[in-house]
Amino acid sequence: MRHGAPSFNKMSNTWIYLPHLKEHEDSLTPNVLLGKGRTGVSLVLGIPTVKREKQSYLISTLSSLFYELSPEELTDIVVIVFVAEVDSAYVQGVAESIMTKFPDEVNSGILEVVTASPHFYPSFSQLKETLGDSKERVKWRTKQNLDYSFLMLYAQQKGSYYVQLEDDIAAKEGYLQAMKTFAKQNPEDWLILEFSQLGFIGKMFRTSDLPMLVEFILMFYKDKPIDWLLDHILWVKVCHPEKGEVHCSRKKDVLRRRYKPSLFQHIGIHSSLKGKIQKLKDRDFGKQTLFKAHTNPPAELKTSLTAYESHTLERAYLGQDFFWGMSPVIGDFVQISFHQPQPVKGYLFRSGNIETNGDKLYNTTVEVLPSDVSLNTTLFLDAKREFLSFVALGAFVNGVAEGTIDPLMEKISAIRLVIHSDSDVWALLSEVTGIWRVGCRTPVKPVKNLKKVG
């Protein structure tokens, strides 16, 4: 245990429902692999993750959650990844992968990775087959109930509201503020606020209600799946056995309130249950904004990257789509050559989008070609002043390249992006624009695939 991880030993009833915990003193002590012990936030997002047979969606899920959050929003959340496995090598591998992909979020305390003691889980060998489920499925849903319970207990002292998520979802842009606003608009008595209609995705609770919820779940964790148990809690709290289903549904709707459109979409295909294909989609989620369109001046476009399907550079430049280039390597480039030199004041290139936020540009510079090659060399420091030489002005940081262009350059003939190292992800450009003194919109010349720079 690190960073002052809370122990759950004070919740004495846990020992009643899980008597095997008495055999080991540390069975309810969480092991914090990554984290700074952040507390006092508004929202705590909980994500249990397990080893999947086919494909992991965890990194994509985290990228989607962090996409375009403001500094103010980042100071008011904690995202907890609970690695619900006892294989220490696998657990450590997940922690290392998260640290590599999200160092800023981990070091600032926004993102935590925790796991349970190997003694937390009971033996699943004596489970009864119920509800017509196979023994493997009963074991899967039983362990899932324990995973949710552990995560809720860990999260209860960290903030005001707890939101249950899964490790294979995509978030809608602006989801965080939407959840906060909806919670403020519903100050009266509710138990669950729903931000997705699927399963246990996007369910918000007051952290003050978590101990009661966990105790109910642990009472029946071997009997039914989590979403059924939640419905039973509502029934117990408000339904009258003599007043019928209509009255009961109306009463439950007071405690369980639905936000539309949904803020989270299920993206996984391969379930954490071995062999199960999960194609469920939330029809209330709607379409994501995957690129931002701008009016750019006419230009000839060149790239050494191969576009994936119809996601071409030309369509991205015209504001019709995003550009998705496959497998960037050192020397790959994207070049925009204007038909007429342009008085450009600045530039903005954004890589990744809310669904594919991991496909960013890394170790990539922004270079411009001034139309006036006779400018004083001191303006460009040690840049070569040969004809058609490009000048490096900036680079991508956290997937975004944004900057100004010295007015002494006057007009620019071309802008290009140059990749300086091989990448293990594709490159997706969701926003391409400059700050123009003069601009117009006409068709661009078709993209040419050329040899790499260098």
UniProtKB/TrEMBL annotation:
Pfam families in the cross-refs: MGAT4_cons (PF04666), MGAT4A_C (PF23524)
Signal sequence segment: none
MGAT4 conserved region domain mapped to chain residues: 10-285
A Gene Ontology molecular function term of the record: acetylglucosaminyltransferase activity
Domain MGAT4 A/B/C C-terminal stretches: 299-431
Gene Ontology BP term (one): protein N-linked glycosylation
Pathway named in the protein's UniProt entry: Protein modification; protein glycosylation
Keywords assigned: Glycosyltransferase, Transferase
GO CC annotation: endoplasmic reticulum; endoplasmic reticulum-Golgi intermediate compartment; Golgi stack
InterPro entries the record matches: Glyco_transf_54 (IPR006759), MGAT4 (IPR057279), MGAT4_A/B/C_C (IPR056576)
UniProt cross-references to PANTHER family, sorted A to Z: ALPHA-1,3-MANNOSYL-GLYCOPROTEIN 4-BETA-N-ACETYLGLUCOSAMINYLTRANSFERASE B, N-ACETYLGLUCOSAMINYLTRANSFERASE VI
Name under which the protein is recorded: Alpha-1,3-mannosyl-glycoprotein 4-beta-N-acetylglucosaminyltransferase B-like
Organism: Scleropages formosus
Gene that specifies this protein: zgc:154054
